[in-house]
Amino acid sequence: MQKAKKQILLVLVSTLAIVAFAMTPALAKDSKYKKSSQVPEQIDAPKVSPHDSQPGPAWKTVGGTVKHVEGDIYTVEDYEGNQVNLRVGQGTKHIHKKKVGDTVRAEITRGGFANSIQ
After folding, report:
1. Phi–psi pair at 21, nearest 5 degrees
2. Which H, E and C letters describe 27-62, residue by residue?
3. Most CB within 10 Å of its CB: which of 39, 45, 60, 67?
4. Distance between CA atoms of residues 28 and 31, nearest Å
5. Residues 84, 46: contact at Cβ < 8 Å?
6. Looking at the predicted structure, is the pLDDT value of residue 43 above 70?
7. In this structure, what is the dihedral angle of CA atoms 54, 72, 103, 85, given to the nearest 10 degrees?
8. Which pLDDT tens digit goes with each residue over 51-82?
């Protein structure tokens, strides 16, 4: 009887150890995000921020139709139907001022500043 109890205990401890080793990588992956309490960055339309008011490294090219112009902010609807806010300034290379309804193609920074607009 003693021998049977020891064997059952050994099987249970072994099973627990195997489960613990199998779960460790999954738990470590989850805890990485929980510790920093950050959401993984999404690469969608850039947010216009006041600190990005000059040319910088190009992030992507946006093409579409100008839907709204307010000061130095152009709202462009891209060909997929997404609305993107572009900030233009003295550092933006463009031929002439755009108006609502114009088709544009702009090279923008991550912060939404248009390096160039055509």
Report:
1. -65, -35
2. HHHHHHHHHHCCCCCCCCCCCCCCCCCCCCCCCEEE
3. 45
4. 5
5. yes
6. no
7. 80
8. 466 677 777 889 999 999 998 889 999 989 99
Domain 60-117 indexed as CATH 3.30.40.10: no
Q: What is the DSSP letter of 1?
A: -
Q: What tens digit of pLDDT does each residue of 108-117 get?
A: 888 888 888 8
DSSP element (H, E) containing 11: helix 2-36
Query: What DSSP string runs through 51-109?
Result: T--S--S--EEEEEEEEEEETTEEEEEETTS-EEEEE--TT-EESS---TT-EEEEEE-
Residue type for position 32? K
User: In which residue are the tokens 């099973």 written?
Assistant: 15
* 75 CB burial (10 A radius; 0-12, 13-18, 19+): middle
pLDDT at 18: 84
Q: What is the mean pLDDT of the chain?
A: 78
